Amino acid sequence: MNRRVLLIGVGLIGGSLALAIKKEHDATIIGYDLNEEECKLAKTLQVIDDYSIHLREEAEQADLIVFATPVEETLRLIEALNSFTLKPNVIITDVGSTKGNILKKAEPLQQKGVTFIGGHPMAGSHKSGVGSAKGHLFENAFYIFTLLPKTPNEKVVELKGWLKGTKANFQMMEADEHDLVTGVISHFPHVMAASLVRQVQDQAEKNDLIHRLAAGGFKDITRIASSSPSMWRDIIQHNQENILYLMDEWMIEMNEVRDLVAKGDRDRIYDYFSGAKQYRDAMPEGSKGAIRSFYDLYVDVLDQAGVISHITTILAEGNISITNIRIIEAREDVYGVLRISFRTDEDREKAKKIIEQHQYETYKA
Ligand SMILES: NC(=O)C1=CN([C@@H]2O[C@H](COP(=O)(O)OP(=O)(O)OC[C@H]3O[C@@H](n4cnc5c(N)ncnc54)[C@H](O)[C@@H]3O)[C@@H](O)[C@H]2O)C=CC1
Ligand SMILES: O=C(O)C(=O)Cc1ccc(O)cc1
After folding, report:
1. pLDDT digits (tens, 9 = 90+) for 136-179
2. Which ligand is nearest to the CA of 293?
3. Is 0.95 exceeded by the ipTM?
4. Residues with CB under 6 A from ligand 1
5. In terms of CB atoms within 10 Å, which of 23, 155, 180, 329 comes out highest?
6. DSSP state of 284
């Protein structure tokens, strides 16, 4: 019998999961979203088979229910599910960036014998909406499951089966540990990125050159500050304790660095940078973390006119597809750096070889 998936929240992550599910399953995917335009677009793009405005009716027929809504909304909707008569074997999961409060909210469902498995695919983008959804978004990314006590293992295996098409790397974690770890590597860095941008904004009011010069590397390192403010408001709210702890730690650290700078302590400043470099350089390559790594290649170009078409032609001849190409004009008009993004490290390596054969200089960030 054809199985039914109810996707609640048909945006970037929900749409990407739907596409991944479709790769491996011949199930009917029904979308439910407050924004009807997103549902229409999702249907046109064949991300979902159909959509509905009748949550109860759809939930009661579903074999798999996926919440891909902002965390605060997910909490509200999980509560609504409590009064529905769900199929006895249904699996409910979510994709929220925080897990503690969501699992607590799902406890009453489990007490009624319904399986809820917390999920967090740790890859994404600063973009929102189903228009940016991709079936391969979670390939090689960590996909964390957080379980309520007594969740049957066969249900976890079944959910992994549903999500096989993501080609993600599934991992189990306790909800508390998840929230601390993601606080460290994703949520707090997000606050930092936003604060760096706001510092530039404040300083740019005094000197408008700052705005122009920030367009290069600064923009790259603060890319995540362009993500959905409402999504991040929810994340910060639901990981408040960890974020406050990390902010306090950061301020202690900044005071220590401030002290080194004030004293002009050259050796210790060197040690500070060198320690950070060593630790960063030793981080594993090739696996995706929460913050998306791009397989970028930088190419020095002198004459910008015509160079993009030349490089795209030689890459096309070499059968290498690119996901993005952009000139970063950080060196005024004559010189430029071309940044080309690839889907895999392998593509980037092949491209590097080919481009260098044409006498361009390349480097990886
Ligand atoms: N964006 C990212 O990179 C990642 C996001 N996440 C998590 O995924 C979830 C969704 O994020 P995105 O897909 O990026 O957001 P999105 O904005 O692209 O999609 C969210 C969708 O939920 C809909 N929605 C909001 N409230 C609703 C409600 N009450 N009922 C039905 N639909 C509702 C919105 O209309 C929107 O279409 C969030 O919980 C976020 O924490 C997890 C991993 C990565
Ligand atoms: O844009 C990026 O790379 C991200 O930071 C993606 C992201 C956002 C939220 C998550 O919970 C996990 C990953």
Report:
1. 999 889 999 999 999 999 999 999 999 999 999 999 999 999 99
2. 2
3. yes
4. 8-14, 32-35, 38, 68-71, 73, 77, 95-97, 121, 124-125, 128-129, 228, 231, 235
5. 180
6. P
